[in-house]
Amino acid sequence: MQLTDAIIKSIHEGHLFPGQKLPGARVLGDLLNLNRKTVIAAIEELSSQGWLESYECRGTFVSNNLPKLKYKPLQHTVFGEAVEGTGHKVNKFRFLESLYLDYNNVRLIDDGVPDVRLSPLNTLYGYHRSILSKNAFSALLKYNHIEGDLDLRMTLRSYLHTTRGIMTNGQNIFITRGSQMAIYIAVSTLLKKDDYCITSLPGYQIVDNIINHLGGKIAHIAVDREGIDVGQVDEICKKKKVKLLYITPHHHYPTTVRLSPKRRIELLQLAIKHNFYILEDDYDYDLHYNNSPVLPLASLNKDGRVIYIGSFSKCLSPSVRVGYFVAPKEIMEAANKLRRIIDRQGDPLLERAVSEFIKSGDLNRHLKKTVRIYKHRRDYFCSLLQNNLSEHLSFIKPEGGMSVWLVFKNAEVLKNLPDKLLEQGYLLETDNIFIERFNGVRIGFASLNDVEMDKFIETVKQILD
Q1: CB 457 within 8 A of CB 107
Q2: pTM, entire model
Q3: Torsions phi, psi of 395, nearest 5?
Q4: What single-letter DSSP state applies at residue 24?
Q5: What's CA 226's distance to the chain center, in Å?
Q6: Where in the numbering of this chain does the HTH gntR-type domain appear (predicted)?
Q7: CA–CA distance, 146 with 173 (Å, rounded to integer)
Q8: Residue ranges of the chain with pLDDT lower than 70?
Q9: What span, in angstroms and rounded, lies between the C-alpha atoms of 76 and 202?
């Protein structure tokens, strides 16, 4: 009842205090424009709960058995400030730029995500509906394998061998809700407080955030046109005990460069020499345009030092939260225990649908289609950049992926660009911008068609000119 709740709230907030007499039912009804019977029912309910006390011929009072409350209005708080009146603090994640983004009335310029208009979600969820129509589907509605749907893991075993040369079995594949969860679980199983991890600079900030969150320490290495500087890895490992190295060798994030064959071999040798794990994030392996993609480091993995991470979110849609990692037995066991704490399991129905989508050949057909479209978009976007913005920035045409790394000649121009774009209806996420030392920004082209690219580049040109 609204009146019941209102009186309880008034007592909590100190507007009504123990021993205070309330107006009679008729008067209270007139004041609140309520029926007398409604008021009486509320008083009886509150009396039975112990909030009020009613006495014949005396009236109704706020119970004297309630503690006196010192009410202070709860002001708007931000993370890290004590909630007023409690003395407690909320954890402040200093490495998080923002908790959400408002995409209303703006066009998001992403860092390289698929065009959801091309996503074959009707086909994928057709398998979902088909699974629900079968008699045995109820097994998927119960608690399932923590490591993910067994059918999908066995399908991935064959798929990874055929497409990436990775030899594994279903027992070494762990299904997650996207690659970011895979990274978090994998790093969490290995990292202890103050352990050193190597990441690149510039690099994928989310990984640095995870390491910081887990209490690890970060040693950064540089990136050039051949990928990460492997020589720096060796020098760091001579001085510090490194537990883990994170790398995106196929298309480095954010610069898009590919790790050269020579450095791949050297890196694997260093992992053995200095006894560290390599976390290989192969987020867009299937999107390569100039020639056949180089096989992952994990395909050369003979002693279990490479943990391989993949995802279907990049080739299908960000909403399809299905990722995975391939790892040795001891990591799988630790990941199993951690998953039970944070998520228990994924989405068995969706995972089974993805398995059917792969086995039917629909995934390969979709990839052939999108590679052709994204190759055209890459070429067209790069031609627009060259013809319209070359006096302001430079870039190298990427061999694959869904984005271009742009290096601005003037750092101040890049610094002001997001605000000026927002005025024109474009939201450029600041996480994609690396001003200090690099003057670079990663811009996705895959989610834009030709007309949308024309408008965006024309807007940028007007701002810069």
Answers
A1: no
A2: 0.80
A3: -160, 160
A4: P
A5: 28
A6: 1-65
A7: 11
A8: 1, 67-104, 135-140
A9: 36
Q: Quote the distance between the C-alpha of residue 102 and its chain's center.
A: 16
Amino acid at the residue 238: K
Q: What is the DSSP letter of 344?
A: S
Rounded to 5 degrees, what angle do the CA atoms 94, 99, 102 make?
140
Backbone phi and psi for residue 54, each to the nearest 5 degrees, phi listed first:
-110, 135
Query: Which of 49, 47, 48, 25 shows the shortest CA–CA distance to 37?
Result: 25
Cβ atoms within 10 A of the Cβ of 290, count? 11
Q: Where are the beta strands (DSSP E) in 232-303?
A: 242-247, 277-281
CB 113 within 8 A of CB 318: yes
Structure tokens given for 262: 């020579």
pLDDT digits (tens, 9 = 90+) for 322-376: 999 999 999 999 999 999 998 877 788 889 999 999 999 999 999 999 999 999 9
Separation CA 382–CA 378 (nearest Å): 6
> Cα–Cα distance between 221 and 270 in angstroms, integer?
14
What backbone torsions phi and psi does residue 396 show, to the nearest 5 degrees? -115, 130
Residue 198 · residue 233 · CB < 8 Å: yes
The pLDDT tens digits for 371-408 are: 999 999 999 999 999 999 999 999 999 999 999 999 99
Nearest to 228 by CA among 238, 220, 236: 220
Q: How buried is residue 136: exposed, middle or buried, by Cβ count under 10 Å (0-12/13-18/19+)?
A: exposed
Burial class (CB in 10 A: 0-12, 13-18, 19+), 65: exposed
Tokens of 87: 């003395």
State yes or no: cis peptide before 202, omega within 30 of 0: yes
Two tokens, residue 408: 């601005």
Residue 13 is classified by DSSP as T
**Cβ atoms within 10 Å, residue 367:** 15
Residue 151's identity, in one-letter code, is D
Cα angle: 278, vertex 281, 283; to 5 degrees: 170
H/E run at residue 350: helix 348-359
The domains located in the chain, with CATH, are: 2-62 (1.10.10.10), 107-115+367-464 (3.90.1150.10), 120-364 (3.40.640.10)
Q: What string of DSSP letters covers 248-259?
A: --SS-TTT-PPP
Residue whose C-alpha is closest to residue 347's, from 144, 121, 87: 144
